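Hi support team,

I've been running sequence recovery on a batch of backbones for a student project. Most finish fine, but this one hangs at about 90% for roughly twenty minutes before it completes. I'm not sure whether the input is malformed or the queue is just slow. I've pasted the structure tokens below so you can try to reproduce it. Let me know if you need the job ID as well.

Thanks,
M.K.
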């Protein structure tokens, strides 16, 4: 937040189904008040990273910033849980702007599915057979055949999630790049993925899709039996998250690169 911004005082608390999140919802609502979301200045999300993604998806058409506190198992996107001085923490917090990915996937029946992903879009094999993918960037084929368990395109905000587990690079938030990362690549065995400009349009064509079915997953939405998937960053959508002073998302991403 900046000194010129008006103070955020009207809070709308949302909680996951976890007992500790529900208990926190009751205590914080009694202490700070509970405003309807349409009247609130800010949404306070109580849960883990999965719940934060749910709230971000739900709030995509609203411009209210979201401040999360960890009442779940994983809390990379969340602030530390503390009940004291909450309004002061929120008004001193640092802001992160997130631009999601847009996925357009066509399945074997010709149905087109559209979805948004804040972390990543993943293509995953559905059976014991490896997937075979053809990858194009901005309309030009860059990899004619990738045999693999799958592949993913990650935003900077999501680069420390599934992308990192698949040995992809951690990306600073202001780098304006996307990560294209293979998942257990078999052929070509030495290909480790690519860093792409955030304006790049990534297309996957599923080869031998009847024999080697593939699903496409945008965060928590899965589309099965896809034949082609197109992914690009949606700069028309801006999501605002708040992080405690000195614990910005940029700082967390940087610190993650030096964790051992």
């Amino acid at each position: 937040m900046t000194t010129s911004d008006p103070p955020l005082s009207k809070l709308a608390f949302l909680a996951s189904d976890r007992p500790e999140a529900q208990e926190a919802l009751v205590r914080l609502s009694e202490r700070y008040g509970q405003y309807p979301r349409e009247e609130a200045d800010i949404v306070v999300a109580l849960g883990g990273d999965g719940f934060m993604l749910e709230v971000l998806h739900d709030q995509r058409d609203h411009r209210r910033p979201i401040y999360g506190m960890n009442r779940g198992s994983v809390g990379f996107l969340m602030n530390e849980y503390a009940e004291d001085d909450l309004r002061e923490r929120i008004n001193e917090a640092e802001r992160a702007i997130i631009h999601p990915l847009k996925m357009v996937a066509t399945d074997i029946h010709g149905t087109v599915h559209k979805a948004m992903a804040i972390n990543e879009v993943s293509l995953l094999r559905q059976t014991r057979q490896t997937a075979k993918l053809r990858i194009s960037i901005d309309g030009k084929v860059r990899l004619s055949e990738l045999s693999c368990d799958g592949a993913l395109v990650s935003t900077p905000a999501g680069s420390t999630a599934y992308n990192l587990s698949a040995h992809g690079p951690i990306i600073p938030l202001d780098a304006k790049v996307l990560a294209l990362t293979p998942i257990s690549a078999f052929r070509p065995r030495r290909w480790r993925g690519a860093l792409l400009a955030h304006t790049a349009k990534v297309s996957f064509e599923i080869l031998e899709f009847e024999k080697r079915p593939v699903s496409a997953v945008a965060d928590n939405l899965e589309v099965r039996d896809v034949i082609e998937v197109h992914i690009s960053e949606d700069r028309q959508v801006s999501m605002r998250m708040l992080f405690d002073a000195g614990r910005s998302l940029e700082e967390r991403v940087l610190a993650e690169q030096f964790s051992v």
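--
Follow-up from support: It reproduced on our side and the slowdown came from queue contention, not your input. The chain has a mean pLDDT of 92. No action needed from you.
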